[in-house]
Amino acid sequence: MNIGTPTRLIAALALAGLSATAQAAAPAPVSAESLCAFEGHRMNTAEAARFLGQATFGPSTASIEELCHLGYNDWITAQFAIEHVPLNTNLYYLDHRSPAPVNGKLDQTHWVESFWRQAIGDGGQVGKDQLRQRVAFALSEIFVVSFNSGAVTFKPRGMADYYDKLGKYGLMNFRDLLKMVATHPMMGLYLSHLRNEKETPPNVAVQRVPDENFAREIMQLFSIGLYKLDTNGERLLDAQNNPIETYKHEDVEGLAKVFTGWSWGGGTNTALRFYGDDDSVKPPDREIVPMQMYPYFHSTSSKAFLTKTIPASNASNAGETEMDQAIDELFNHDNVGPFIGRQLIQRLVTSNPSPDYVRRVALAFNTPGDRGNMQTVIRAILMDDEARLPNARTYKLREPIVRAANWARAFNAYSNSGNFRAYIADDPVATFGQSPLRAPSVFNYFRPAYMPSSWTISHPELVAPELQTTSELSVTGYLNALEEMVRKGFGAPTYSTGGVYADHDITSQYVNEYALASEPDKLIRHVSILLTNDTLPDTYRALIKARMQTIYFPALKSDNSNAAAVLMGVRNRVGLAIYMTMAAPEYLVQK
Amino acid sequence: MTMEHNQSRRRFVGNLLTMAGGSAAVPLAINLAVMGEAAAENATDYKAIICLFLAGGNDHYNTVLAMDNEEWGYYSAQRSTGGSGSIMLDKLSLLKLPSTGSDNGVRSFGLNPNLTALHGLYGNNRAAIVANVGTLLQPIANKDVYKADRSLAPPKLFSHNDQQSMWQSLKPEGANFGWGGKLADAKHDSNSDHKFTCVSASGNTVFLAGAITTPYQVSSQGAVAISSLKSNFFDMNVVAGTPSMVKDTITAARDNPIENEHAQIVARSIAAQQALSTNMLPAGAGGVPNPTQYKLPKVKPSDADTWAPNPLAIQLQSVARIIGGRTNLGVKRQVFFVSLPGFDTHDNQRIDHADLMAKLDHALAYFDSTMRAFPGSGDISSQVTLFTASDFGRTLSSNGDGSDHGWGAHHFVVGGAVYGGKIYGEVPLVALNNAWDVGSGALLPTTSVEQYAATLATWFGLDGAQIATVFPRLAGFSKPDLGFMKPA
Q1: Residues A328 and A441 in one domain
Q2: Cβ(B280)–Cβ(A373) under 8 Å?
Q3: Model ipTM?
């Protein structure tokens, strides 16, 4: 391995407190164990770490300390108060990336950079709104749009803006969120209701019908789901004990007519702009501005869906009015609270919430006079007893993106280039196997009700969505990518002077961890708090410790002449502790 | 069968019963293995079935086309919407099928112009078409019967995930076992090792999940090892025993169900890697030939020729590399899954569907040539049968540049054991408002997935009782075997 120059070595040892050579600028190392050991702390470190694993991309030493000071409720309030300012958005990053992208051409790797910059935090204002970031990620797995579709592959600005708006509207009202989703041009391209034309009149020889794609998925996936639900999320049954379908194909046909006539926004509604292929009608921001109505292409016939019948109309504003009526009809459906609430619980807290937990969250969604307030819903999810108190059924598998983010935040990783040059990581063998906004289809990376077939007998009542993308291949890919990440970070390779391969772009200095290298128990506990809210079993800790003690770890000589050997020992002890913890099923399953 | 063996089987099933806490919860599939035991134990041959899933719902109307003037008139009336997005194919470009051997009298049919290799396979009797196959609970006489009582039809028609699941497991989403996995369960005793009985080259799929058969996922990268289990873990002076400590700790059983499942997957991964590292054939030289790139259909006639890698062909290469290790891997019956995504052609269909057809055709040509000149074995094509499946067909009506979700669709079966060169089953008249049109030309299926599957299962070696167990609704259909496979 490349362990760098002597100067760098001494600096690293100094950071670790193993060298007498003082480092004026170096922050004092912190041990997670003592973070909440102050007068008036509101919780202990393990409780704080647990909460931050649910509400953020993972605890850091700083975020644990902040939470211990504020308490859960005030922390949530403070997070909600962080304004969503353009300067801190993904779109802003893409538009102002430094250095400018090659040939000035943005592609989806720039989105990936921005995603990681937000998820990890850039040390300044970007990514401080961790709750928004975590919720946006959760929503991106419900309101799925994916770069995997050729319709949006080359639209990184539009996609970044869509994600920004999931974060913005995700902390506002669900109705506004749903309308944003329905009118965003990226969703319009992805589910093909952008440029969707009205049906031809019945007497015309060549028949054309509206595209039903978005009408179907907005009901099945984005709002009400397939079956009528009790407030607690369980299916209602008819007299024959069968589940009751929420809609029929005729409802899809009726709703599909509402979603005709919508296309590119940002100018006069001419046919040329509706089709949108001509350069003269391609303003630079058309990927971002909401779709607009082109009355000529909007269905004027009556539209029946669910309990609603919109009468035939050729009024010039009918298209916009009907969009609002459709969004209202869906938003006010009894299913939305439990259907969306349960999925958000699954994304943040647990795969198998109790029916009562779902009911409490659905009732928060249904708050009279304030229906659909997402802040109320998110607070209800995070403050619920099932999320906060010890509970044997509260657990879920962490997905690959969350694992990498956990590592980066726990160990204060930063980007050497400042660009967070992470790569697309879809390949489950060679990489972590998950990239943001790159689900295989609108059905996300995994489905909310997935269970492994082996559970049919052993655990028929449980689901584990994230296990759907866990396979013999992916576990190998994860463990190998983990070893590389622990040693050298992740993302694009960087080169030191002379062209020697050094580390990846996103790396950790392990300042806090190096300082604990000579005390295995403390090091293991520190890592366990940050990554497992201190739930790593004693037996497992003992195994790590036993192995750690076999690593060659000499005392540093006063003239620093064996510094290289000491640093090697420090790095290997820290690496072993982190690798073994993150390889453990006890870490992989968030509790 | 010896008495002793019989007892060990009972013990095996008995253990499962104990695990399940009683007989009621034991799936029928476990019994399949016991039922088929006598036949299977004598098996000295090898057979494999490959499911090629066209994910998203293939537009069968632009895959197999009726070419007679009247039907072509109805087709063009729906699809010639004009403009650059029109999804009507040029009749002169179609690949006309030989007229003999169809269940459809004197009507003439043609294939999508990009299916040149498949056209050749059909002409050489190595490929068959099965018409209007779809998910059904029972035969439905016509669209009026369907419209009068929707409960006769499967739940959640037109929904991608549910109809994918119906095709693969005969139930909507949430099913635990697929019929591919149940076929493997039934032939469980044919294989001395079960790690590679069901293999997916395309991710997790319910199709391959059985009660006693756990599917394995393979990639073109072959047998990748966990690096920390080798001797060069990190930079450290590894003390003997570290790798096994790592292995033991991350694979040990846990109380938490997800932790335990994860530990088991890691354990399987390690075992499979060890088996594959010596038994999976290499790609290319000394192994299974690499597929060529496929030629992209031209958008305009003046476009230059371009080629690109075909991920579907590479998946089929991975399948062949596993088949190449069949003897040492201890398998005589295997079920594989490959897939090609992108068939949900709501828009841009003219260009996208042509590309998909070209990929499909190139992959099928590669499959056929590989099986006919298999490394070290010669022609094994009569032992490996590939069939297509898809979420559903599509509507005849166009939305201007695409088509919508349908129901029944035409499918292909390819291999040396296929009675090819024939269309099996009725191709409904291509026209709106015919007896099978449930709306916009979405077809009420005239052949059920279970008939299609059972025909393959019979060739695979399941007996009548096993077939009846795996395909419980088959009894409601008049033809349990569609006749497109040669005798087992």
Answers
A1: no
A2: no
A3: 0.94
